[in-house]
Amino acid sequence: MNQEAVNAQVPRDEYPRPQLTRQEWLCLNGEWEFSFDDARVGDAENWHQPGVAFERTITVPFTFQSKLSGIGDPAIHDLVWYRRRFEIPAGWSGKRILLHFGAVDYNARVWVNGQLAALHEGGHTPFQADITPLLAPGSNTLVLRAEDFSRDVTLPRGKQYWLENSAYIFYTRTTGIWQSVWLEPVNDVHIKKVMLTPDIDRSEIRFRTFVEGLQAADEIKLQIEITFQGGKVSEDTYSVHLPEVSRAIGLHDFTDHGLGRLWSPEHPNLYDITFRLMRGGEVLDEAVSYCGMRKVSIEDGTLCLNNRPYYQRLVLDQGYFPEGILTASSDEALRRDVELTKEMGFNGVRKHQKTEDPRFLYWCDKLGLLLWGEAANAYDYSEEYVRRFTKEWQEIIERDYNHPCLVTWVPLNESWGIPNIQVDKKQQQHGLAMYHLTKSLDETRPVVFNDGWEQMTTDLLTIHDYESRREVLEKRYATVESAISAKPGNRRILVGGAAYQGQPILVSEFGGIAYKKSEWDGWGYSGAENEEDFLERLKAVLDPMFSSPVIQGYCYTQLTDVEQEINGLLTYDRQPKAPLEEIRKIMTGGKA
C-alpha cells in the first residue's frame, strides 16, 4: 500500500522515517483499544492474549494525557495497555513484515497474536521487530504494554514533571505511544540502515550501508544513485559480501565556489540518493534517502559552517503542543514551527530536553534550519540512570546521524542528572564519558559537555544567562576573561580543574522575557507590561550579543509559551506576541 492509499482520516499518516523511505508501508495510527492498569493486574490476567476487554479507546500516536488522544487525562497512570487488529495487504505475500514504533514512553513490551515480539527501554527512540513468524492469515492482533515511572527523578524524562500538576519550568507528562506505528514489507535480504557522511573538502559522500539477511552464497550488488534536482550526478555499483559495506562516492558536479551546492540555512541544497540491492537482474530492495553537503568545524577558535565563520542565531524550542503535548497534531504543524522560526530571523533551533520527531528534522533539512540535538535528561543521578541514559543516547545518535541540519550534540544540560558535578568525581566522569562516547560515534560534529555551566572537556563553551540589564550583559561579554569568570545563576562555567582552551563561546540560553497580552498569570524570567515594553526588553538582551567581540552565537529562550510558562516569542498556539518583522529586526541585529 503506498502513501496515497493510506486512509486520510488516520492522524500523522506521513511516512515516519524520512531518512530511509520505501514505497510500500501501512500506517497503524488511529483508533486502538486502550486500558489503564492502575491495579497492575494485566500481566497476571494475560491481557496480551485474545479475549480480554479493554475499557477505552485511544487515538494513536497521541498519549492519553493529551486532548488529541480522545482521553485527555493528565493524572498519573504508569501502566497502560494498547490493542488493535490489522491485516497484511495481499500484495505483501512472501515478504518479511517489519513492525515499527517511533517512540514509546518509557518501557514497551509488544505481542503479536499473543506471542512476544519486542522489548524496548527508552522513551525517545525507535524500535522495530520482524513479526513474520508470528502472523496468521487474515486478522492479526497487536498488543502493547507501556510502563512509565512518573515519580522517578533518575529517569531520562526531560521536562515531564514528576508531580501531579505541571509547574514552573516543568510540563505535563507523556506515557505510552507518542510517535507513529507502522508496518513495511521487505525481502529476506534488505537494507537495515545507512549512514551518510558528507565531505565537502574531498567533494564526496562516504556511505556505510548495513544489509540484513545476507547469506554466504549470495551474489548481491548494491547500486547507489545520486541526483540533484532530478539530474543524475553519480552512480556506483559494487558487490556486497559482508553485512556492512563502505564506499566513498565523488560528486563530480560539486563545487563550493560561491557556496555552489553546499547545504546551509540560506541555501538548503539536498542531494537525493537511491539505494538498490540486486541479485542478478532482480531488485531485492529499493530505499531512498538524501544528503546535505555541509561541514561544521572549529578553526582557530572560530565556529565555522562550510569552512567559513558562521554566527548562530538559535531559539530554544521545547517541542510541546497545546493539544498533543509532545506530539504535533500534524506534519504541517512541525513544518510551520520551522517556518516561523526562520521568519523571526533565526538560523537555528535548540530542541530542549527532547529528541524530536524525525519529521521535524526533515523539515529543518528541507527548509534550512540548524539544529542542536539534545537528550531528555534525568533530574538526579544514579547508576541505573547511567545505564538507561547511555543506551538511549547511543540510539539517538544513530537515529539522527544523517540529518544535515544537526550541527551540535548536547548530551547534558545544566547539570541535570549530574547535580553534584562540581564536587562528585563519579558525576564528573559520567559527563566526560558522555562527551567521549559521543565523539567516538560521531567525529563530524561539536559536542557540548554540559550546556550552560559546570563544564569540563567541551568543544563549545556555552553559557546560560538570564540577566535582563543591557549594561550588565555588555560588560560581562566584553572580554573572554569576564565571560568565563562570570557566574550566572551563581554557577561556575568551568569545574573539575578544567581551564578555558580557546573554544568558541556562545550564550546558549538567555532572555526568557515573560509577556502575556491578556491577564498576567504565568511564569517567566523577567516580565514585560505591553508590546512596546516587550520589544524594548528584547533589544536590551539581544544587542549585547551582537556587540560582544567574544560571543559567536546565541540561543534565545524561547520559541513558544508552554502551559504555565509564558516567556515565548509566540503564544502556545503559535500566535506572535509582536509583529514578526519587528522580532526579526531584533534577532538579526537589524540586518534583516
What does this structure look like?
By secondary structure, the chain is an alpha+beta fold. It is 16% helix and 31% strand. It has eight helices and 31 strands. The chain has helices at 331-343, 358-367, 383-400, 425-441, 470-476, 480-485, 531-547, 580-587; strands at residues 26-27, 30-36, 56-60, 79-87, 96-101, 104-105, 107-112, 115-121, 127-130, 139-147, 176-177, 181-186, 190-199, 204-212, 220-228, 231-240, 244-250, 271-279, 282-291, 296-299, 302-305, 308-309, 312-317, 348-351, 370-374, 406-410, 461-465, 505-511, 513-514, 526-527, 551-557. The strands form eight sheets. The protein has a seven-stranded parallel β-sheet with strand order 26-25-24-23-31-28-27. β15 and β16 form a beta hairpin. The protein starts with 25 loop residues before the first strand and ends in a 5-residue tail after the last helix.
What is the terminal-to-terminal distance?
46 Å
Q: Tell how many strands the DSSP assignment holds.
A: 31
Structural class: alpha+beta
Q: Spans with pLDDT under 50 lasting ≥5 residues?
A: 1-8
Q: Into which percent range does the helicity of residues fall?
A: 10-25%
Short characterization:
By secondary structure, this protein is α+β, with helices and mostly antiparallel strands. 16% of the residues lie in helices and 31% in strands.
What is the strand and helix layout of this fold?
Blueprint: E1 26-27, E2 30-36, E3 56-60, E4 79-87, E5 96-101, E6 104-105, E7 107-112, E8 115-121, E9 127-130, E10 139-147, E11 176-177, E12 181-186, E13 190-199, E14 204-212, E15 220-228, E16 231-240, E17 244-250, E18 271-279, E19 282-291, E20 296-299, E21 302-305, E22 308-309, E23 312-317, H1 331-343, E24 348-351, H2 358-367, E25 370-374, H3 383-400, E26 406-410, H4 425-441, E27 461-465, H5 470-476, H6 480-485, E28 505-511, E29 513-514, E30 526-527, H7 531-547, E31 551-557, H8 580-587
Parallel strand pairs: 23-24, 23-31, 24-25, 25-26, 27-28, 28-31, 29-30
Antiparallel strand pairs: 1-12, 2-3, 2-4, 4-10, 5-9, 5-12, 6-11, 7-8, 7-10, 13-14, 14-17, 15-16, 15-18, 18-19, 20-21, 21-22
Helix pairs in contact: 1-2, 3-4, 5-7, 7-8
